[in-house]
Amino acid sequence: MLAPRLAIIGAGLSGLAAAWKLRDSSVACSCFEKSRGVSGRATSRTRHDVRLDPGANYIKAEPEEIEHLLVEELPTEDLIRIPGDVWTFDESGSLSPGDPGLNATPKWNYRNGISTLGKLLAAGFRVTDFHVASTDLEDAFMHLTTGRVVQ
Ligand SMILES: Cc1cc2nc3c(=O)[nH]c(=O)nc-3n(C[C@H](O)[C@H](O)[C@H](O)COP(=O)(O)OP(=O)(O)OC[C@H]3O[C@@H](n4cnc5c(N)ncnc54)[C@H](O)[C@@H]3O)c2cc1C
Is 131 touching ligand 1 by the criterion CB < 6 Å? Predict the structure, then answer.
């Protein structure tokens, strides 16, 4: 019988966390990502020398496995525990003190932005630059078709 192989479509934090969790298992993983870079919606950008997280902007340390992953398993040199409350603004630009429940719990990010988490998770394996357009199971083989025009 063939050893199990897993195709992970998308190198956002979900796909990367799955690959990370299986890194020492007998399941061989291949991860495919259509965008430039890893981390998906937990992305970071630089505008006018300012580092921004336009998607997810902090990581909650709940459940405790997340905190363990951040503080014990992954490198911590660039990890920051966000001090104080996270204020929010709405579409009119009006500021509010944020969600008291969320503000009461520890929140984390990285000096170079939240995409660092994706990069750290992806460090141990290869992410293939591939837009999966369709999947087709045939004779126990999964065929992945690309939608990208290869030049
Ligand atoms: C504005 C905003 C603020 C947020 N704030 C927070 C926050 O503060 N804290 C928090 O915990 N969460 C926050 N979130 C939610 C968090 O960003 C997401 O829950 C999380 O990043 C989703 O990860 P994911 O891997 O499931 O999906 P995604 O990040 O969407 O990753 C999916 C990946 O799959 C790739 N992909 C999709 N289709 C294909 C294909 N056919 N072939 C190859 N690759 C493919 C995509 O390019 C992408 O990289 C926020 C989200 C947004 C948008």
Answer: yes
Residue 149's pLDDT is 47
Residue indicated by tokens 């981390």 = 39
Q: How far, in Å, CA of 59 to CA of 70, rounded?
A: 9
Radius of gyration from C-alpha coordinates of the chain: 18
Question: From the alpha carbon of 133, which atom of ligand 1 is closest?
Answer: 41
| Domains of the chain in sequence order | 5-146 (3.50.50.60)
Instruction: Count other Cβ atoms within 10 Å, centred on residue 119.
Output: 16
- Report pLDDT for 148: 60
The reply to whether ligand 1 has any atom less than 6 angstroms from the CB of 113 is no
Residue listed under structure tokens 């950008």: 45
**C-beta 122 within 6 A of ligand 1:** no
Report CA(59)–ligand 1 centroid distance (Å): 13
pLDDT digits (tens, 9 = 90+) for 98-140: 999 889 999 999 999 999 999 999 998 889 988 888 888 777 6
